[in-house]
Specification:
With 154 residues, the protein is mainly α. It is built from 9 helices and 2 strands.
């Protein structure tokens, strides 16, 4: 029995904002954490590309993340760490969607098999939603559900 069925039986109402937050948490725990733990050299290039495409200064983002680490002041050998993707998204739903699309485009440009990980993570996060959050994932892009209905009318 899934959580959706449980909520129906117990008459627990779900709302779209809570579900969007759960979607972001699922992506943080699956896709973003897999990428964060991956190849460091490749991650640096990906992070630089994401910052560029989002119009953020990579160095400012890195410094903003590391400024809270007290070792930075006292350890002469301290190297700034590149933040996890969650720091870049700020747990914001729309920013998370943008980052996912950009990650897909990045891996596609590198002809990487990691596109399959992106697709699987997004599809799993969407399929586990208790409430339809009004988006669809197709060929590396999110589309609003309204767009799908409008294309049928054309």
């Amino acid at each position: 029995m899934g959580l959706k069925k449980f909520n129906q039986l117990w008459r627990i109402d779900e709302n779209i904002n809570d579900e969007k937050s759960r979607f972001v948490n699922r992506i943080n725990g699956s896709l973003f954490s897999q990428i964060d733990r991956g190849d460091r050299e490749g991650y640096t290039d990906l992070f630089d590309s994401l910052c560029y495409w989002l119009g953020k200064n990579t160095r400012d983002v890195i410094l903003g993340y590391n400024v809270r680490d007290p070792r930075r002041q006292f350890d002469p050998f301290y190297n700034d760490k590149i933040p996890p993707l969650r720091h870049l998204s700020g747990d914001d739903f729309e920013t998370t969607l943008k980052i996912i699309v950009l990650i897909h485009a990045y891996f596609k440009s590198k002809t990487s098999q990691k596109i399959k990980i992106v697709d699987a993570s997004v599809n799993a996060a969407l399929s586990n939603s208790l409430v339809d959050i009004g988006i669809r994932w197709t060929d590396g892009m999110f589309y609003p559900l309204v767009w799908k209905n409008l294309t049928k009318l054309s």
